[in-house]
Amino acid sequence: MTREDTTAAAGCLPDIPPAEVLDVDLLIGRYPDRPGPPGDPDSVRAVLDAHGIGGGLVCSLRGPLFDVDAGNAETRRAALPGFHPVSTVDLRDGLRAVRTLDRLADQGRRIVRLFCDEQHIEPDFPALRQVARRAADQDFLVLVSGDVRRLWRPFAGIGARVIFLDTHFYHLGDFLLLARDEPGFHTSSRLLSSPDGLELVAAEVGAERMLLGTRTPLYEAAVPLLRLAKSGLDGAQRRLVAGANLRRLLEGRT
């Protein structure tokens, strides 16, 4: 068996059919200032197939980095099997961000990804506060990248449905304290690679609050998959994390 075969085999969830496995953190495109794979839709789909992932939430990097309208259109064109398009807004232009969100709601596309680090947005910036409130009022599912210890604030106390994509196991305690008070707060599993990270989330707030994330193609998909496969979660909990939770959150928002 080749090294690639071994990696792929280790990265699959043997007890869950690929069609049931959904990834909350997929990107197409690339960062122009750093090395990495090309990130075209076909190559991303090939990585998912190799690791037993049926699909997930995909967003083009063109939107947050260069042009929101062009990026959102590119995301919609990446209509490969299993891909659920996720729009974004430009938080550097608050008025336009709110108008873009309203337009998305009118079109029935109620999933948005916020690239706070890439756009150098702080939690107390008016644009982020307004987008957070508008998203909650219009029943959006919001994906947020960046430090959960800082970026939780605009979403607290407003009934928001949020998935924090960068919860690190070093900061897991902070997320769990927040999640006790905020039933709409969820976390990606991508950086919860400590020996008890997944188990701690399940024990403290329930496996319903955790979703599989790999950030394919920029990171190695096998790592979070293997951590989930070898975790102490029972079969029902693994199925929730692997895809059932995301399917529940997507209802009525696509």
Q: Which helices and strands occur, and which strands form pairs?
A:
Layout: H1 3-10, E1 22-28, H2 41-50, E2 55-60, H3 62-65, H4 68-77, E3 83-85, E4 87-88, H5 94-106, E5 111-115, H6 126-137, E6 141-145, H7 148-151, E7 161-164, H8 172-181, E8 185-188, H9 197-204, E9 210-211, H10 222-229, H11 235-250
Parallel strand pairs: 1-2, 2-3, 4-5, 5-6, 6-7, 7-8, 8-9
Helix pairs in contact: 5-6
Structural summary, described in words:
With 254 residues, the protein is of the alpha/beta class. The chain has one domain: Metal-dependent hydrolases (TIM Barrel, Alpha-Beta Barrel), CATH 3.20.20. It is built from eleven helices and nine strands. The strands form two sheets. The chain has a six-stranded parallel sheet with strand order 4-5-6-7-8-9, sandwiched between helices. It has a three-stranded parallel sheet with strand order 1-2-3. α6 links the parallel β5 and β6. α5 runs parallel beside α6. The chain starts with a helix and ends with a helix. The N terminus is likely disordered.
Structural class: alpha/beta
Distance between the termini: 40 Å
Radius of gyration (Å): 17 Å
Kindly provide the name of the CATH class.
Alpha Beta
The chain-level mean pLDDT equals 94
Helix content, binned percent: 40-55%
| Share of β-strand residues | 5-15%
Count of individual beta strands? 9
* Domain module tally: 1
CATH topology: TIM Barrel
Strand order of the largest sheet: 4-5-6-7-8-9
